[in-house]
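Subject: two folds for Thursday's group meeting

Dear M.,

Sorry for the delay on this. The cluster queue was jammed most of the week, so I only got both jobs back this morning. I'm pasting them in the order they finished. Each block is the input sequence followed by the predicted structure tokens. Could you check whether the formatting survives your parser before we put anything on slides? The first protein is the one we discussed after the seminar.
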Amino acid sequence: MSKKNEPVDARVRLAIGDWPDDAPRGSVTAFCVEHGISRKTFYALRARARTDGQAAVLEPRSRRPKTSPTKITEDVKDQAVAVRIALEASGWDCGPISVHDKMLAMGLQPPSVASLARIFRQRDIARVQPNKKPRAAYRRFVYPAPNACWQLDATEYVLVGGRKCVIFQLQDDHSRKAIASHVAPSENGADAVAVMRKGIAAAGVPQRLLTDNGTALNPQRRGWVSQLVAYARTFGVEPITGRPGRPTTQGKKSALPPDPVPVVR
């Protein structure tokens, strides 16, 4: 049995076109069962062969509908383009949404916003902006589970009277939960270890620790091991850093090679 909507084989079509008028009773049913077609298809092809000739029955006819009630007429397209031109000339926004709303206000029947955008592209009047990224491009990368990676950063803050301090902030990469914070007079290794110690006491040990390349945090790219890195490694934590000049990525997908380097005291 052939699949539904599958084209009828050309040899079967030819046999139907040559079907004798004096064929015995029941032969049509047996033929249809043997070749996996319906009696309706059989008689439709046979009628076509009688009216249009045997050659017409060999090729499948197009299944495209004869009418398309939802098709946008050229007059409607011209109206949409005219409204867009008028809005642009007046200094108003002339995107598909604005054109749609304006056509409704004018008592017209506008196409959908997506159809208007397609019409403007077809007429070569849409502004091409290849610099715009699709919404899917703004997907935020996070680790799949809590404690898979922590992020540590130090921010300078000016107090009343002009005094400065540094706030160490430790957060979980997965949940963005604040694990611990610590205020210090400067960004230094001892206070970086202090905030890490607080975080481990509060939430356990992470798998990775992500920081920048600062001397007090993780200067491995400069050939040193900081107090923080040495402390984290005693718990089996893998310290990773962001690439130089790339503070937004912070090197989440790749860790530095664990080469032995001298410890800074």
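Second protein, same layout:
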Amino acid sequence: MLIAVGSDHRGIEFKKFIINCLIDMKLECKDFGSFSAESVDYPDIAESVGKAVVSGQCNYGILICGTGIGMSMAANKVKGIRAALCIDDFMAERARLHNDANVICLGAERGEAGVKQMLNKLFSTQFEGGRHQHRLDKMAKMETSC
């Protein structure tokens, strides 16, 4: 499994922690930046990660900014991305189980507590399908009709 990881300048240190967690979980990752503390525009990083996931180059994406909100909003502009802002393992599990999230967004200011559990839930939970699939179909239709 290959995970696309990206952050803005405020999330660089947290991104390093996330990458180490992924390595500990025996998962491969590709770092899409940012690579310095110099200010960057988070939509650029979100677009790069989103395109890598949608194209199949990467299986999932993790995006990080100060709160995770901006990355979540930007990532969801990429057709085919279902990005979820997650703050705990319950949200990560539900993001996969009910919404088939392919990107999660994290806030660097939130800190490291509980992040490993959140990643474990994300990668161990399968999409439930069934009654949830028609909602995803409606969202996909919105991408082309709005």
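Two things I noticed about the second structure. The chain is about 45% helix and 15% strand. The domain at 2-145 is CATH 3.40.1400.10 (Ribose 5-phosphate Isomerase B; Chain: A,).

Cheers,
T.
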